[in-house]
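quick one, 626 residues, struct below
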Amino acid sequence: MFVYDRFQQEAIDYINEGHSVIVSAPTGAGKTAIAEHVIEKCISERKGVIYTAPIKALSNQKYRDFQKKYQDTIGILTGDVSINADAPVLIMTTEIFRNKVLDKPEELGRYSWIIFDEVHYIDNPERGTVWEESLIFLPSHMNVLALSATIPNIEQFAKWIESIHKKSVKVVIENHRPVPLHFFYQCHNQIFDNLNNIRRARSYKANTTNAIIKHVRDQDELPCIYFVFGRKRAEYLADELYNYNFLTAHETAEITNMYDDLLERFDLKNEKSAVRMQALVERGIAFHHAGMLPTLKEVVERLFTSRLLKVIFTTETFALGINMPSRSVIFDELRKFYGTYIRNLKTRDFYQMAGRAGRRGIDAEGFVYTRVNLGRTRIDEVRTVIFGKPEDVRSQFNASYATILNLYEKYQEELFKIYPLSLHFYQTKAHQQREATRLMGAKLKLLKEFGCIEEGALTMKGKFAKAVYGYELLLAELYGQGVFETLDEITLAVIAVSVVFEPRKNQQFPSGLSKNTQEIKRISEEIYFETRRKETKAKVYPFSKMPYFHLAKAMECWMNGMKFQKILQFTDTDEGELIRYFRMAVQVLREIKDAPISPELKNRITQALHYISRDVIDAEKQLREG
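---
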């Protein structure tokens, strides 16, 4: 019989008594077992449960894992994927849940529980407001299970939820890891187990990857996850290890057969990136990042879970909820890009990744190595990152135009009474509360100026805008001017991918755009700069996102039937990133299709979706075949 840990049993007891529960525990402590209890309880009681995750990759993995266990009771809904969407156990991204809560709450009647995985994402500057809105407008009949990495102000978070929903929220805290972590440091190309000893080192050599990997291998601490904060860096370091071979002859034969079978299954046999990876895989090495083909990433994940891969160079998304533990973890450095600037890692982010070290039931302890470059990071900064107190969760509330429109539809001018229910109001001082209220008012005034609200009600333009989260003003203006009704399937796809695309610094712009694309680009940019002028005047921030047409040529060619590898010549965007943006375009088109538009436009969008969602872009196909 399976025996739960103390914190797992405590949470399960509260759940069985009908309480909502928030669990704060280290990565790898076993929070998923609590979620599975809720799922099994709901299945046995013939009730519905929703499981939300912060990223699609995690949603997809949970779908695969849960489907193996619970079969036809599992469905998934992520914007670009809809499989078994009426299932009693429905996995979705938090954005999809938020949209349902605001726009179609009646569809949630059958679901008695909502599970928020990685709920500390509520303090993500770009997307945190989605979690906050989901909790503020949570239907009263739904209980909450919130799972989080270690956060100090978990009690405050629970009291906030209690204050708005007037029912008890039980807090369960676990600080102990079932597999303890042992910390080491590479500095001057030596390995130290105590930070204090680094100052006394006599040799001042540059750190090398080979030296730290050799040490980990010699100490029998493989497999190893090596975290880097750049895609090119992950590939470069993997290639640097080419002369190593971590496998026996038997393991080489086994992993080669497995890799070949997976390439066949996912139709990757002729993909350059998959062929390139093979030479590394046969030595027990791989890399993994968001710029890769999603199917190739999945192949690498499967190889890693087989324990045949010994060293994987990866970016931080590998740590986010995806259950891929190893014996050791290495940090390439302790600095990363946080949206607008580079800074030292947050302690909570460090442990999200470090927590992948130590496989429960296999390892007595996990080993965490940090490469320390004293020219970039001081010893006291290293100590703060690793041994400091994890950061509090802080609200990032900033209601979108779509949220304000949805609230206005229900509450009219009374919508300002919603803000005091927010975590932002609960945590902040009076001057910050006044500014947040002013910002909501400024957005409401702009929506009226744009003709989305007239005489106390949403116009057709407003009803359209409330369906397209994140791109409301630009798309609503294109709708209001009748532009959408004139667009063919290709141009609809082009505008959809252009509103979601975010170029990197110095990214190339394609030449040879079609006349239709040049015209929609001109109209869209004209609307955008007028919108930005009005937002600047109204002191609205952040500004609405600008459309970027860097992927327009690639999308035109894709819509005309060109093969994926050939469209890569029209962009310097990584292939995995290109797929992600095309899939995001699918989600935008689906949102437009659900808005109040003409039957003719609906038909053209249906055709556009058919042309985009083929081969590697078809996210549903990857999940079904996987």
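The two ends are 31 Å apart (CA to CA).
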